[in-house]
Every structure is written in C-alpha cells, then in structure tokens.
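Researcher: Next sequence.
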Amino acid sequence: MEFRPDPVWTERYERERERLERHTDPSAVFHVGSTAVPDLAGTPQLDVIAVYDDASAMWDAADTVVGLDERWRRTDRESRTVVYWRDPPEAVYLKLHLPGDEQVHNQIAVRDHLRADEPDRRRYERVKREAAAEHDGFQPYQEAKAEIVQELIETARETGRFAALPESVRE
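Model: Next structure:
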C-alpha cells in the first residue's frame, strides 16, 4: 500500500465535484478521507461524499454517473450507494448518501478535526503507516486503524465538530 501526500488531490476532488454538480443535483458535496486533509499522507484514493435530498435522486445520480464512463462501477447498500473506479494504485470513490447519515457526519467531523489538530493528524498518520506496513489488503488495513478512528470520532464530538456540521447533511 502506497502512502504519500499529494497536492493534486484538491484538483481531482474539484473535477469530481464539478462532474457531480453538472450531471446530478446533490444538495452538498464534500471531500473527505486523508486526501482532504492537507499535509496528511494517505493511500492514493479520492473519497467524495455527495448528499441528495431523497432516495430517488440518489439512485438516479448513481445511474447517471455510472453511465458517464465505462470505468465506473456501483455497489448499493440500503441507505447509500458507492460509485467507484479503480486504476491501481489510484481509485475514486463517490459515496452517495441521504441527509442524516451517521457515516457522513463522522467523516466530515473527523476531517475537520484533523485539519485543525496537528498532533492528532501526526498520530493518525503514524497509525496508518504502521497499519499499511503490517497488513496486506484494504480490509485488514481498515481494521488495524479502527481504534484510532473511533478515538478521533469521539474527540471530534467533544471538540464541537459535530455541532458545526453543515445543515445539508442533517436530517
């Protein structure tokens, strides 16, 4: 698993945000994950969350995005869908959600906390690097960093990051 800070992630995010807004009608679009935090090394994967007002708009948006390029694939879950492409070592994940989704709240709050708190950002990066060095594959890597992610969610809650979430992601 490759780790590197990459200043072009913001440009890549903007491209995906513009594509989503041009072809679908999200109420909000967010850059999340490690690539959304300046000066934090991460896997070469762009994570984008788009929030839609209702399920029909979300499912239609997924259909639209998949139809834009043959590289896009889709995985549906009960209350969200993920549209993605992988061209190793890089990947783009568009996570389409409805307002009120706890996963969206967690990702935005942790992103905002890591942007503001350098000691936690360094600690998180250290754990991520250790997890990547010790584990092959995405799922074992995710499991190895689960404890610090839970800690960061709690810290984000304690420091008011959840209270500051945008209205567009609330129910």
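Model: The first strand starts at residue 28 and ends at 32. Strands lie at 28-32, 45-51, 73-76, 81-87, 90-97.
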